[in-house]
Amino acid sequence: KGLKFYSVIEVTKSIIHQTENMSSSRLDGKLPISRHFFKVMMPGFLTKLCIPPAFCRQLDGVKSEAAVLTSRKGSWHVKIGKCDKGYIYFKEGWDNFVQQHGLNLGDFAVFEHKGDMHFHVYVFDPTTCEKEFPLKLAHQIKRESSVVNIHEHVKHIKREGPFQAATSNSPVTTHFITTIKACNGKPNSPYMNIPAEFIKSNDLSQLSSISLRDPSGKLWTVELRSWKCSSRNYRPTCMENGWNEFYESNNLKEGDICMFELNRTSIRCKSTVVMDVRIYPQPI
Description:
At1g16640 B3 domain, disordered N terminus, alpha+beta, 14 strands, single chain, 7-stranded mixed β-sheet
């Protein structure tokens, strides 16, 4: 039951296909709120990044000449360019974002549109885990627009375990992405592996169970199992009992993509640890 993830390109193709086929309808003519698109860093990404055409159609009529990109490191203003077909891309300022986040070929990012061309960006490396960055202190963040409103107060505290991780300045991998494989839905003893880096970074090795929140908001309790591996310096961990119920209820199938995000509020409240799950169906 060793970790086995599809390549970044395979993951990207599925999510991009879904993004390209999103409906271009809008509610009341307003900009979409909290919508997502996914990009892999391919040759040419250093100086500009094109927004998927389907997402550009969601932004039809946008007059802004700049966007705000916010990550756990801070916020950056990036100028917007438009091609003849009306598609949008990030230009001046994007190269600075790339440099500050150490983006390389094969890295990828999820962009969450918060409205008014303000995006929250989650950056992942080819292992499918979120890249680790230290949280930026409020006095280090240059506020150039009232649109930017993040991390007003971040305190240095000692990280003592999973319940303290939510308020720690230590870099933490809070997301991971995986593609559904045959072993995740097999008739006998289905399971879902959790990356060792994710377990270690969040001090979750002592947990015996975790709750998954599906896109509808329903919680599913799943048991965790880990075992010793003499050839490795970590304990592989997977979700077992309870995973099959989550799998079947959400109609998962081989090739679908899931993004698991650790819910920091549940850790801070010392309740059952929760992971929010976003599901990207495999294109037909």
